[in-house]
Amino acid sequence: MSYQIELRHIKYFLAVAEELHFRKAAERLYISQPGLSRQIKEMEDALGITLFHRHNRNVQLTLAGQYLKDELSKNLKQLDNILHHAKLLEDGKDGELNFGYVGSAMQRIIPELLIKFTKNHPNVLFSLKEMDNIKQIDGLLAQDIDIGFVRLERIPRGLSSQLVLKEPFCLVLPKNHSISHDTFKSVSQLKNESFILFDPEYSAAYYEKVMGIFDDSGFTPITSHNTIHADSIYKLVENGFGISIVPKSLKSSENSNLKFIDLDMIPQRTSLSAVWKKDNNNPILSKVINLIHSNCP
């Protein structure tokens, strides 16, 4: 079966499918509205299907149109990635990999991974972007990023994961706080303190794990602030707005206004995992995944 469909038809169709408005799609594509309508009609005639229901100014996708939008969007993204990789090869690069990560992954995990990888692959470009867990999942599914480093217990179908770190927590206190390594006995000593915690939106599973620390300690914390960035937590603690509990990998030796107390004695642990889309065809991704597998527990 032969269809006289060209790449321009697909791009025009996707623009209308996303805007659900012919005039707005035409403006976005810098073509006339009648010209756009003509291209869509050509595509419908060639395929023998109706892509849109048109009711006066209201435009809706048909079932066939919705299916094509979902599948063509995905495959056009892969085509863009293939062409981009070809251009990198032309420019003398082996490829590019886009990372998403939660802040704690940049303390040690990602830098060590990149150092090991670039020893054998010095011509790879890396793009690094700090993102919360949910945005990373969305980015992986849309293939806006190739690999993410998340704190999640479960991931959607279509993604794969590898545990890279399981670690304890630690307390974050102002330098002049009365509790020290020598006087600290249990978290219950801090029941009257205000706590600055990672927002539940950062990761619901992570948040519940931290709440479990307080449950075991016999109190509900006074939460003064929620945030998704460790730097914000440190600034707030440093300026006397409260104290915090963070993953041990977020300990910082650079801030002399803070002190950290390890909570190795409690059972709670938090996990950091590498996550990627199973059908991502970026040739560099498989090499990075192999390295992760060989260096993880």
Automatic annotation (TrEMBL):
Keywords: DNA-binding, Transcription, Transcription regulation. This is Transcriptional regulator. Belongs to the LysR transcriptional regulatory family. PANTHER family: HCA OPERON TRANSCRIPTIONAL ACTIVATOR HCAR (PTHR30346:SF0), TRANSCRIPTIONAL DUAL REGULATOR HCAR-RELATED (PTHR30346). Signal peptide: none annotated. InterPro entries: LysR_HTH_N (IPR000847), LysR_subst-bd (IPR005119), WH-like_DNA-bd_sf (IPR036388), WH_DNA-bd_sf (IPR036390). It comes from the Bacteria. Pfam families: HTH_1 (PF00126), LysR_substrate (PF03466). GO terms for molecular function: DNA binding; DNA-binding transcription factor activity. GO terms for cellular component: protein-DNA complex. Residues 5-62 form the HTH lysR-type domain.
